[in-house]
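Form 7-S
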Amino acid sequence: MEQHSHRKFWAAIIILAVAAVTFVLASAWTFIELRNTKNLLVLVQGELTDVRQELAAKEAELGTRESQLAESAALVDSLQTALSKLQVNYQRLTTGFGYVLRDPSYQEMKKFLSEDNTSEQEYLEGRYTCVDFAAAVKSNAAKEGVRCAYVVIEFRGGGGHAIVAFDTTDKGLIFVEPQFDWEVDLQVGKRYYQCVKPPPGHQMMKPPYDDTITRYIVVW
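Output:
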């Protein structure tokens, strides 16, 4: 009977020891899990803080963008209003004319002169003279939207002459003899026929009168 009691006692001791070891191991494992979970939680909290800061920065940037967009919208409205006023003024300026004159490039001037048939007209004393040639070129240029000047030249020997001019965008003011479409290097104090620059194979005849230029007037 006493031997049987000893066996129960040691069995109980072994069971308690095993239970204690199991409890210690389980507690250690739980502690490790809790520590890992805590570390993970700290890491997640750090990342969450970064995300919150980034979100705050994005919200601030969005606010700035919205302000800029509002300013841009206001600017667009202002420009549209200004454009509407300009269009109204433009229509007022062009009403009754049907065109807006512009200065041509040198090549555009040459092209216009080559297509214009004024130089093909016959000079008729007292009926179709230099005045008519110049007026016709100026009128035809206006119909094409090209700005052309009427130029009045006075001679030392009395009388005068009429030619045209174009203020080209690339070569400046160019004088043209409309009877031939020849360019003219107009200079006060020089004889007019010497100022005309005929193409190769042509020449400007010397007139019987003194055509020395005393002054000229450009009328746009």
